[in-house]
């Protein structure tokens, strides 16, 4: 009788730690987006994104050196890891460009159509079956995005669609993770993403500088701007580490809904720094997106359980 109670307590403790880690990550990650919005007032978003990945790369290297773990930087599937980094850098660039033109909370809210896009991509590429209820959830979430986009599109034009592009790139990133489940450690993932992102974005920044385009050309950052770029890289590194640690300790279905805390923290920081606050229709759109995302997450959990029990049933 004692052993089951102990195991249950341990599981509950792990879930509590995981919930704390995930909540912490969702509260600090929007700070990175707010800093990116602030920097985009004086630096091209491409340069801000480049700085984010460069400092992520340097922080990963520094942690490996300080822990005498240079081997931990080595990836077992470098090609896949670098592809992840390219997709992630494209997603971040799209998002950092978006927050230059629109409130952070609005951009993050639209970005959360990502579970719907991932479901569509999984159906098209992985041939996963999508039932009528999930199709209804996808359409509901997209309707919520359209409600949020309505005033933004009238005010800033096609740039308001950048969070949707962000969601598409990030969904593709997650799809690659699903296709190539690896055993790389956190340092290898962070280092690989930082390296590939720095290379791709560095080349793009060099081309923009040669062409003399002010929106893509390198501008020498001052000490204050460099400090903020370092902060973005550090928050990215820490935030990713907290999320990975949370999912290592807790149940995915328990943690997934907490990602929507990001909307709350983004709204708070966006209001404190820029005075931005979503209007009534935007909150309705947010509610539709969050509700659809939660339903899709729940359906995915149920389907995974069914897949896990099917082989046992056949035996």
UniProtKB/TrEMBL annotation:
Keyword Transmembrane: yes
Keywords (A to Z) from UniProt: Membrane, Transmembrane, Transmembrane helix
Similarity remark: Belongs to the drug/metabolite transporter (DMT) superfamily. 10 TMS drug/metabolite exporter (DME) (TC 2.A.7.3) family.
Name assigned to this protein: DMT family transporter
Topological type in the membrane: Multi-pass membrane protein
Top-level taxon of origin: Bacteria
Bilayer-crossing regions: 16-38, 50-70, 82-99, 105-126, 135-153, 159-176, 188-208, 228-247, 254-274, 280-297
One Pfam assignment: EamA
Keyword Cytoplasm belongs to the record: no
Organism this protein belongs to: Roseibium aggregatum
Source taxonomy: Bacteria, Pseudomonadati, Pseudomonadota, Alphaproteobacteria, Hyphomicrobiales
GO cellular-component term (any): membrane
Coiled-coil stretches: none
Predominant place of localization: membrane
Location(s) in or outside the cell: Membrane
Domain EamA: 19-149, 161-294
